[in-house]
Amino acid sequence: PLLPLRNTVLFPGLFKSLSVGRASSLAAVEAALATEDKTFLVAAQLDPAEEAPPLAGLHKVGVRAAIKKMARGEDVIEMIV
Predict the structure, then answer these.
(1) With 30 labelled, which of 11, 19, 42, 73 sits at a CA distance of 20 to 30 A?
(2) How many CA atoms lie within 13 A of 19 on its CB side?
């Protein structure tokens, strides 16, 4: 799964809290949770105003992230990756 990030950059080896609320992003997190290692790819969006960026709308370099902790809210997932 691929999670586009708005106004955020994730660097390798660091912990970061993320709030996920877009339907496509929630689906990516759910797909990651269904895997044994609970990992997904993240890449920063070129245009943070874009609601559903295509692959061309993402930076070419991303990071593989692993979900360490998470909490579900109403229409949002808070997690530490």
Answers:
(1) 11
(2) 6
Antiparallel, parallel or unpaired: β 76-80 and 63-66:
unpaired
Q: What is the pLDDT of residue 20?
A: 94
10 Å CB burial of residue 26 (0-12, 13-18, 19+) is middle
DSSP at 9: -
- Please give the full DSSP string across 10-66, using - where no structure is assigned: --TT---EEEE-SHHHHHHHHHHHTSSS-EEEEEEBS-TT-SS--GGGB-S--EEEE
**Cβ neighbours, 10 Å, residue 5:** 21
Rounded alpha-carbon distances, angstroms, from residue 44 to 36, 39, 73: 25, 17, 24
Mean of pLDDT values over 7-32: 92
